[in-house]
Amino acid sequence: MGGLFGGRLKMARRKAMLSQRELAKKVGVSAQAISKYERGLDMPSSGVLLRLAKALGVKVAYFFREVSVRSIVPAYRKRARLRSKEKNAIVAEIRDWLERYLAIENLHSMEQQYPPLPEYNVSSWNAIEEVAIKLRNECSLGLAPIENLTELLEDRGIKVGLIEGHEGFDGCTFLANGKIPVIVVRKGLPGDRQRFDLAHELGHLVLEVADNIDAEKAAYRFAGAFLVPEPVVYHELGEKRKSLNLYELHLLKHKYGLSMQGWIYRAKDLGIISKTVADYLFKRFRQKGWHRREPGDQIPPEKPKRMERLILRALEEGLISRVKASELLGKSISTFYREEAREHGGFPAGICY
User: Fold this and answer.
1) Which residue of 118, 201, 269, 319 is surrounded by the most CB atoms within 10 Å?
2) Predicted TM-score (pTM) of this structure
3) Quick one: average pLDDT of 111-115?
């Protein structure tokens, strides 16, 4: 029991980005005591246990939940500038969310029902364009806009998570326990950027890139091609253009969920506009500050819903209590309903069962 508790205490402390000394000060014990707890050499009293839970923002039950996620090795973007402390916090937050996700699946006796994701060997940019179309066809998408990329990925067995932002973190992907595909992106991004990050991480999952191609650039190319395939770009923009109208790009952004800058990249990559024209447009975006937040109304971010639906289903069927549902949600049922009500015209806040 001490070993289980100690491991989970350490994970919660890392998630909160606290040192042993900082946590000890909040709880009113010595740093040596925290060290002993984490190493499984001692167990806290009930009073200290409650103070630990409060200081770390978790339920007491969190410390005694069985470990179901053994292996998490996220592949961060090469350009990500993350300190070791931040990486530890990200991994701890991902592990907590994923364990709750797998716990509710296990409650419904849901084993992995999906075949392994396909892997495509690519050695050219054209091959990446072809793979994007092939994967879309396997998902029965054809060339139509993807209405909700998050739902599509979840329907294919990929666990999609959102975590609080850390400077320098956009997203990551990995196979949990060596077999469960997971994509995690930062919470609070505009919808078009979030969708691009999701497609980018999907690229890392499905592409086996030859040595002559940079893996990061390949994932970027795949993301644009998956959201807006090559035939669609030519259909919408034409074969050759001297320039692109910015409001035209804004309208296309809202039709396909790819940013205005993403459309510029697609046009450049496919030879519709020259590099000179693309560089001029990107310069305008930087001068206006649009490279961070594009002009006009924004695309709302997508929110993974499958895990929440499974928890509500289990609660309604009497498989779990409200207390257990709150633990799995990571927040009280009342708080969850209030937050949802802000997005859904006041429903379901105020519901009594």
Assistant:
1) 201
2) 0.88
3) 62
